[in-house]
Amino acid sequence: MNATTTLVYDGSFNGFLTSVFVAFDEKINVADIQKNNQSQNGLFSETETVFTHVEKAKRVWNGIRNKSHNAISNVYFAFLSETEGVEMMLYTYIQKLMRTQNGKYLDYSDSTVLHIAQLAKKVGREKHRMEAFVRFQLTKDEIYFANIEPDFDVLPLISKHFRDRYADQKWLIYDVKRKYGIYYDLDHVEMVSLNLKDIHHNKTVKSDAFAPEEYEYQTLWNDYFKSTNIASRINPKLHTQHVPKRYWKYLSEKKEAV
Amino acid sequence: MNFDRIREKLNILADAAKYDVSCASSGSTRTNQNKGLGNASKMGICHTYTADGRCVSLLKILLTNHCIFDCAYCVTRKSNDVPRAAFKVQEVVDLTINFYRRNYIEGLFLSSGIFKSPDHTMERLVSVAKKLREEENFNGYIHLKSIPGASDELMYEAGLYADRLSVNIEVPTISGLKLLAPDKKHEDFTKPMEKVKNEIVRYQSEHKVIKNIPKYAPAGQSTQMIVGASGESDKDIMYSATYYYKTYNMKRVYYSGYVPVTHDARLPAIGSQVPMLRENRLYQTDWLLRFYGFSVGEILNNQHPNLDMDVDPKLSWALRNLHHFPVNVNTADKRLLARIPGVGMQSVDKIVKARKFRKLNWDHLKKIGVALNRAQYFMVCESRLWERRDLDADKIKGMILQNSTGKFRNQYSTQLSLFN
Ligand code: SF4
Description:
The complex is a heterodimer of chains A (258) and B (420).
Chain A: E1 4-9, H1 13-25, E2 30-35, E3 45-49, H2 54-67, H3 69-80, H4 86-99, H5 111-133, E4 137-138, E5 143-148, H6 155-165, E6 170-175, E7 180-184, E8 189-193, H7 212-227, H8 236-242
Parallel strand pairs in A: 1-2, 1-3, 5-6
Antiparallel strand pairs in A: 4-5, 6-7, 7-8
Helix pairs in contact in A: 1-2, 2-3, 3-4, 3-5, 5-6
Chain B: H1 3-15, E1 48-49, E2 55-56, E3 58-62, H2 89-101, E4 107-111, H3 118-134, E5 141-145, H4 152-161, E6 164-166, H5 174-180, H6 186-209, E7 221-227, H7 234-248, E8 252-257, H8 276-291, H9 296-299, H10 313-320, E9 327-328, H11 334-337, H12 345-354, H13 362-368, H14 372-375, E10 379-380, H15 393-403
Parallel strand pairs in B: 3-4, 4-5, 5-6, 6-7, 7-8, 9-10
Antiparallel strand pairs in B: 1-2
Helix pairs in contact in B: 2-3, 3-4, 4-6
Bound molecules: iron/sulfur cluster (SF4).
Residues 67, 69-71, 74, 76-77, 113-114 of chain B line the site of iron/sulfur cluster.
C-alpha cells in the first residue's frame, strides 16, 4: 500500500489551489486536505504543510479555467461554502476534470460533479441574497455601513457588485460571523479585519454613530414596505421562504418584527 | 426635507400604486458611468418581499393620486373618496436616491393619476427621470408608466431616460374597456405603445451603425391586464396577451388578479376572493408561450377556453395530447423534451449534456432534478420499467394529484411554481 499524506494549508483559496498543485506535482497519494486550524491526523497518513504560493495557485486556476469556465466558478463557489471536507471533494472533482478529454466536464450523473454543482449553487444563492439584503446605514463620517451574517463566506463574491454599483459613495460591508469586512474608499475595495463590539442590528434604539437623517429614511422605507402589502393576498409562508428569518435582524424593513 | 409631510405622502402614494404588479427591474444593462451612482443588470434584484410574497425591487409610487378619470377598477378614480396627495418632482428624486444609496431598491417605478391632462402629467414623470439621469448621474433602473393619451414627443423623451415604459391595458377586451373605463379609448393605449415600439426598432437599427447614440427604453415595454374583473375567459386574456407581444414587441405582459377596491355594480363585490390561482395559471401559460415553444392555440381554444385549476397548463396539455407521448429522453430533441410535464428548461439542458456520456435511467433523471412524479407517465428512458403504458388521461391525472404534495393544492401561492 502506498503511504498517504494529509496536506495542511492556511485556509485561503490560494492555499487550497497550491495544495492541489503540490499533490499533482509530487504525485502524492492524498488522504485529506485540511485547514491548519482544524487539522486532524489520520491514523495512517503523514502530514505535509503546504505554503501558499500564488504562482502555483494561478497555474491550477488557469488549468481548470482552460478546461471549463463553468468548472472554475463551481470550484471557487463550492470552496467558499466552508463545508467540512469540501477540499477533498474538490480535489476529486479537479482530478476528474483534468482527466477528461472533451474539455467540459458536465456529466451531471456523476455524484461528485453533481454535489459540487449543488454546493456552488447554494453559495451562488447566498451571494445573490446578500446583494439583495445588504442594508446600508449612513454614518456621521459619511460611510454607508452594513452588517451581514451570511451562511457562507460570500464577501469576496459580492465585492464587485457593490463596487460597480456604489462608485460615488464610501461603503463598508462587515461580516459579523467571520469578523472581517470589505471597505470601498472611492478608489479601491480592501479587505479589512475589524472586531466590532457594537453591532448595529435593527434595534429601535438609535445610535449616534449615524447621520441624523438616517433614521428618517429607515422609517420611510419601513412605511413603504408596509404599504406595499395587499392584505387580501397575505401569505406569510411564502414571505419567509423568500426572506428567511435569520436575515431579519439586519433588515430595516423588519425592524419591528425582530 | 420635511420628513413628516413626505411620510404622509409616501403612505398615500405607495398605497395607491401597489396594485400594479409589474415590479421587474430586469432586462436592462445600464452600466455605472463616470463614477456615478448605480447600474442596472440583466438579472435585476428583489431586495425584499411583501407579506404576500411578491418581490420588491423598485420604489413603486404614484406622482399623484389626483385623477380626472373614473375607471371603475381603480382606487385612484375621481369618484372614490380617498385622501389625495402629490409629490413634487424633487421629492421623488430625493427619495429614490436615498433609498438607492441604502441598497433598498433597484430603482424607481413611477406612475400617476391623470391630473389636468395626459400630457401635463406625462411631462412631470419625464422630468423626474431626466433629473435623476442628468443631475444625479443615476444609472439605476427607471420604469415610467406612460399615461394613456400622452403625445408622441413625450413618449420619445420618456424613452431616452427610462429603462422601461409601460401602459396598462388593464381590461383585455375592447367591450370590457368601454364598460369599465368609459373615459379612455383603445387608441389611447395603443398609440403610445406603437410609438415606443417604433422608437425601439429605430434605436436598434441605428445602434448598429452609430455606437454611442443614447439608449432608448433598453428594457422594452410591458403592459398589465386585470384578471377577473370583467368576466373574460382565459382564452380572451391569453389571445390579447399574444396580440400585444406580437404587435408591440412587449417584453412582458403581467396578469393581475383583481383586488376589489371600490363598490361598483359592474365589478366583483368588495371582499370577493382574489383569483390568485387563476393568475398563477396565466403566468405559467405565458411562460410556456415564451420559453417552451408552445403556441397559444395549443393551450387555449374553443374546446378548452379556460385553464384547468387543478393541474398546471403543461400537464393539462399533455393529458389532452397523450398521442405525443412517451418521449424517449435519450433521443428526443430539446423541443420535445421541454414538453414533458415535470421537465423544466434547466433539466432539458442537463439531460442533453448528460446523455452524451451515458444513456439515462430513472435514477439519473431524478438526480438531475426531473419531477418524476409527473414525468414518469410521459417518458421512457434506459430502463424497462414503464408500467403505465395502458393508463388513460384521467387515471394519470388521478395518480399525479394523489402523489403530489402541496404543489397543486396550494391555492394561495402567488409565486410561479414553475415546471422544474
Ligand atoms: S386614468 Fe388611471 S389613475 Fe385615473 S382612474 Fe383611470 S386607471 Fe385610475
